[in-house]
Amino acid sequence: MMCTGRVDLEFVLRAFSNGMDGVFIVGCRLNECNYVTQGNYHALNMALLSRRLLEHIGLNPVRLSIDFMSAGEGIRFAEVNNDFVKKVKELGPLGEGEGIDKEELKTKLAGIRKLVPYIKLEKNDKLGVPLRNREEYDSYFTLEEIDSLVRDAVSYYIIPDKCQACMICARRCPAQSIISGKNQIHVIEQEKCIRCGTCLEVCPARFNAVTKLSGEPVPPPIPEERRTLVRKA
Amino acid sequence: MAGEAGNFDVALTKKPRYVNESICTGCTTCAEYCPVKYPDQFNQDISQNKAVHIYFAQAVPLVSYIDESCIYLKEKKCRICESVCKQKAIDFGQRAEKREVSVGAIILAPGLEPYDPKVRGDYGYGKMQNVVTSMDFERLACATGPYEGEILRASDKKHPHKIAWIQCVGSRAVTPGSNSYCSAVCCTYTQKQVIVTKEHDAGVECTIFHNDIRSYGKDFERFYERAANLPGVRFIRSYVSIGKEDPKTKNVSIRYATPDDGVKEEEFDMVVLSVGLAPPAGFKGLADKFGIELNSHGFCKTEPFNPMKTSRPGIFVSGGFQGPTDIPEAVFTASGASSQIGEFLNFRRDRLTTERKYPLERDVSGEAPKVGVYVCHCGTNIGKVVNVPSMVEYAMTLPNVVYAKEQLFSCATNSAKEIADLAREKGLNRVVIAACSPRTLEGLFRDTLREAGINQYYLEMANVREHCSWVHSKEKEEAIQKAKDLIRMSVARASRLEPLQEFDLPVNKAALVIGGGIAGMTCALSIANQGHHVHLVEKEADLGGTARRIHATLEGMDVQAYLRDLIRKVYQHQLIHVYTDATITDASGYVGNFATRVKCDRGLIEIKHGATVIAVGADIYQPTEYLYGKDDRVMTHLELDEQINKGDERVIDAESVVMIQCVGCRNEDRNYCSRVCCSESIKNALTLKKKNPAADVYILFRDIRTYGFKEDYYREASSKGVRFIRFEPQDPPLVEAVKDGGRSVLRVTVTDPILGKKLEIDADIIALAAAVVPTPGNTEISKLFKVSLGPDDFFKEAHVKLRPVEFGTEGVYLCGMAHYPKHMSETINQAYGAAGRALTLLSHDTVVASGSVCDVNEKQCMACGHCIKACTYGAIDWRQTRDGNKALVNPILCKGCGLCNSKCPTGAIQLRHFTDDALTSQIDAAVPDEEKVIEQAYAAVGAV
Known about the structure:
Chain A is an alpha+beta fold.
């Protein structure tokens, strides 16, 4: 890719989901961006965040490495790479080294990947900040921060009694995750929902049908046969 | 060379390369088999190379040549290279070729030669094994150097743990064999070498013996501090002499002196001589051949106010031949010289250009992906590690692959044609080339696709050479597995590529130049002389800028006469439109199409222009120290210049004048050197001494930074009795107004670090070398034109060395003191440089915007604005729609970095050619389990 800043959280997690035992991101030297973007700092923060996410689900964060070097540093590249491979080999296969059951790991990774859009939204403020001192790296994202981010992840729910089937939320939902129809009470497909809150924002205040739930289970969707809206005369 | 400006005839001799460069692919098989080992000139003769070899890793063209050490050329034996070259590129029949060219103008850019310390025979170079030059050291520290980046001693091939650098070798000395000038670059390159050494091995002790530290360039002061603050680094201000070489360890001892300890002798594992810059080899012959004059140092003699013009019309000079030069200046003098030639030959512009025609692009949007895979042997480069036929077989098993073939060299002309022909014949709509790095040949293969009538963005390269066969030559089994992985990943991505269009954008042919000082006017004239309208805006009522306050240069040139002439030329030029008392109120648009609103003497107007040049200059610091503003005998160096020229008796008849350097910079607030003040004070000192030889003139300094040829004036000032007293920044001079026996004087107390005691000087006049500071308007201008400022609020160029007069924002250029403090000649160099870059844009009717830019699917956009925040190019903006705000990308401003893409929570914004879909398909295909690959890859479509 053109810049390490293009490396998406999803790419990293996807590689682990595919069973990769380690992921190594390498980009230009910090502060030596050929352009004005300094995208490698964005990559750095994304990697620091990813490491905490790995830790959160019980994986060893060492499995994700990021380093910065110039195209002229072939020898260093080889050294750093060999070093990383050695470390990952010592850890053993993904999950096994950490003693996590394969199925459990799959579920956990899938769970985190589902939260990627939400994490990007919540942590956006911290992703583009250049960290000039190495000492800051470790404390930039803390495990407690990530634990609570995941624990308190929000969900959105349309209260069937309040929905007036106006279609606004469905039309505006960027993930197309709202099942709607004329005179049909709208339902958020929780599997597809990216927790952006657009529905809450656009639902007309006089209906106030969307609620935000934080860290609590979402009520089951209203059964299909009861979705037809009965308007009061 | 014969003829005259506009019509030169030049006879060239092209030495035989003994390799046909049009068919050599640079595979280096020949070098592998060549039996001759010969000192490698590029690596300073430290290691060996072969008689047939590529000169160095980045050589252009990247093909082999045979040098005079070849035994066939000497003894008519061998010819091994000929038999191993599969391309049949070796041609011993080549003879020196005579070629005649007719040209209108000539640029001399022969560069520089490092000073050879053998000439003077001191410092033990050539006698002691562990004394090396900085050039030797440069190669030692380089990854492509003699020991692949390991710094080793010649005597025992061990790592040195204690290294000394000796500065000013061959420079700043009037002894025979040395150069009197300062070589201008050695202080900073030494600091770089120290930093690089510490990166190699943090434990190395580095000691630098120096005279003044001349960190006069942009950001150099910070760079110096970075080097000096590393642990185990000592900067010692002392002259040195080389003592002896230990016969056993081959360590070298150095004698030096410090104020505290007196003379000392210390042993080092390695000594690096920071050699200076000398004129290019054969400079006299060159001057004779071209009929140009040289200056007293053997560099090209140039016009005082046009450092690119030689003494002969039609012949220009750029780079090191002007004098000791750093990389950025070499780069912009190259652009500058080209701009001057553009002016000179403007009447013949475009007569030799031809446009290339491609076949019509086939619409494949309705077709399923039909991928063709070409696996390159690269001679034996890939083939001898990776079994190419088995790769072809493997490729055929991959989804969507309809055709696969091996090629000896995919990059050879016949192979490219084969790719194009087969693509048509087999109805391919995507092509994967499994060969080398796209860095080198992606452009060539994209062109091949265009020739085949396929959209060029349907190309994908699998790098099975650099990423595979070259680095895994000792682990063939794994290399084969990796090559398969790489090809599989590329095929997966190719299937998801989309056809993209590069589009042409019209260019408005006018330029806007902001700032009517020397930089702005010079740049405006050069652009206008090439047939373009230029709008020149100046915030003051008159043109001229800072130069209006300077009467003469250090070299004695009359600045005011030059300025009058320049202003006259600007006003008389039909294509230059001057706006004074001007402020810019608004700016919009992008490369080729800007619209800027200016409030000025003519009212509020809107200017449409294709290029923008920022030449807003700089201000002078208003000192608060040393009684400035409280006592009218304390003035700045510029005010002193003015008073001297007005003939102010107070100044001319002063018995004692003290000049204090570095006022307002090289401190915490402004951590940079103002570059011009040392020369400015020396100029004033020399003028004062000329008018009143009896006057006592003192210059209190931290480092005297008269780099380049200006060093000669420093020496002259010394010899004329100007007294230079150094002070330490933590113990600056003290200035008090006192009465001494009825005479009212300014008493200056300063500690002389050499004498170690305080000196008192009674002065009639004090001149402060006040810093050059950025103008307060910089912030506003930077926002309006979406360009950035550096840490000191000077404008920040796109790349310090490679793009010194451009901004990251296309179509905006930079010159003069807006960039950094600089001398007038340097400003003129840079102004022409900026004009040259602006012309590369303005001389075209259109600009081509890349197809690989971002695009928004509005349906998915949730208007969080994170993409807008991530984009440093200001390429994304809001668009109001029925469904609220949506992000909208201006594809002309987008540079395709994809930072926005990785911030977008919904995947609405996608960097084309590097979409989530394309990249995740590669990630999925990386999984070796083939069944899983296919299952995942198909599931991936549209999933992100």
